[in-house]
Amino acid sequence: MAANPEILDEIASAADLGAVEALRVRMLGKQGEITAKLKSLGSMDPETRAAEAPKIHALRESVTAAIAERKSALEAAELDRKLATETIDLSLPAPESIAGTVHPVSQVLDELAEIFADLGFAVAEGPEIETQWYNFSALNMPENHPARAMQDTFYLEPRANESGGESEARVLRTHTSPVQIRTMESAGAPLRLIAPGRVYRSDSDATHTPMFHQVEGLVIDRAIHMGHLKWTLETFLKAFFERDDIVFRMRPSYFPFTEPSAEVDVGWSMEKGRRVVGGSDGWMEVLGSGMVHPKVIANCGLDPDEWQGFAFGCGIDRLAMLKYGMDDLRAFFDGDIRWLKHYGFRALDVPTLSGGVGA
Ligand code: DAH
Q1: Ligand 1 atom 5, closest CA
Q2: Cβ of 135 below 6 Å from ligand 1
Q3: What is the DSSP string of 263-327?
Q4: What is the pLDDT of residue 1?
Q5: In 3-state terms, what secondary structure has residue 166?
Q6: What is the distance in A from the centroid of ligand 1 to the CA of 262?
Q7: How much distance in Å is there from the Cα of 338 to the middle of ligand 1?
Q8: What crossing angle do the helices spanning 17-28 and 5-12 adopt, rounded to 10°?
Q9: Nearest-angstrom CA–CA distance, 16 and 18
Q10: 247 three-state secondary structure
Q11: Ligand 1 center to residue 159 CA distance, Å?
């Protein structure tokens, strides 16, 4: 008996897995046609059996192979169909009722990173639980120095150390300035960075929360002077507030880690009953800055005769309040969904310098 091409064609064109299974049962099942042929071998005379057996076995093999092939082809097609029809389009905007928003602090952080990236600044990070060395001493605020009292610090319980004594209490960092030290130590000079992040002070009212956000700026190179600082701040303020009529002034001030030090005020004016940055009806302070103190540079293992630079520090939440018109800082951290819906940003509006940083 020759391999029956018709049955092979029938298998190859079976429409679905159910049809393949029906053919399998018809040919190879207990009552199947091929099974019956195999059974009939027993009643054949030896000569006929010797002639028929190979043909029957060959038929069984080709039918078994054809069934397996059709089955896997149908299964692959089924998977392709699922992949094509069951996709989830992640770029589809969510319905307004369930769409989340980007918190103004995250938005402003992205804007800062975008603006400073354009000026060649990298983003650096550091831990929120700091040693007193990084938070104070390395920044030229030695123990008992009155400058430590300028910041209301959260101290952690001292931990027992191996020799049975207590290690020095660590602190929740009171500012992002320790990231200056850590990055100068690890990356050396020259450097251009911003270090945004959470900071903590024991303070609470409408414009102060125990946790808030700062951004630190640091440039270390060979011939950096205050002119570079002034230009950088001016460029930053104009790009951030997206206004050309920004006026600002640098007021002599004191920080232990900079010398000379300057506080920076921007001019404001009234627009629609609201105080906005731009114009010159009055001044408000936005950041602290100065030339990095030579002792700080030396504390990081760099030679202050070779390297110098400028630094600045600025409250991110305050920048957000000034730019987007919120007046109570506490609402930033209440997690009130109505506030977030009102002040939040759409997730797909990524700040770019060309498209407008304030989406
Ligand atoms: N660390 C200061 C603070 O939290 C802010 C500051 C002032 C940072 C001057 C600086 C700087 O880098 O140069 O009050």
Answers
A1: 313
A2: no
A3: EEEEEEEEETTEEEESSSSEEEEEEEEEEEPHHHHHHTT--TTT-EEEEEEEEHHHHHHHHHT--
A4: 44
A5: strand
A6: 10
A7: 33
A8: 150
A9: 5
A10: coil
A11: 29
Strand partners of residue 308:
221
pTM above 0.70, yes or no: yes
pLDDT digits (tens, 9 = 90+) for 236-263: 999 999 999 999 999 999 999 999 999 9
135-193 residue pLDDT tens: 999 999 988 887 677 778 999 988 877 777 778 889 999 999 999 999 999 999 999 99
311 lines ligand 1 (CB under 6 A): yes
Taking the centre of ligand 1 as the mean of its atom positions, its distance from the CA of residue 290, in whole angstroms, is: 9
Sequence-distant (6+) residues with CB within 8 A of 17 are 71, 74, 75, 78
Look up residue 302 and give its two tokens.
């760099």
Report whether residue 182 contacts ligand 1, using a CB cutoff of 6 Å: no
For 229, residues 6+ apart whose C-beta sits below 8 A from its C-beta are 219, 262, 289, 290, 291, 310, 312
Cα–ligand 1 centroid distance for 313 (angstroms):
4
SS3 184: helix
Are residues 152 and 173 in contact, defined by beta-carbon separation less than 8 angstroms?
Answer: no
Is the CB–ligand 1 distance for residue 209 below 6 Å? no
Closest Cα to atom 7, ligand 1: which residue?
A: 288
Question: Contact, 148 vs 141, CB < 8 A?
Answer: yes
Cα separations in angstroms, 334 against 44, 167, 317: 91, 35, 14
Which residues make beta-bridge pairs with 310? 219, 291
Tell me the best of 139, 153, 175 to mutate to test the pocket of ligand 1, counting ligand atoms within 8 Å of each CB and taking the most. Answer: 175
- The residue whose CA has the least distance to atom 4 of ligand 1 is 175
User: To test ligand 1's pocket by mutation, which of 198, 257, 296 has the most ligand atoms within 8 angstroms of CB?
Assistant: 257
The phi and psi torsions of 205 (rounded to 5 degrees) equal -160, -165
pLDDT tens-digit map of 284-330: 999 999 999 999 999 999 999 999 999 999 999 999 999 998 988 99
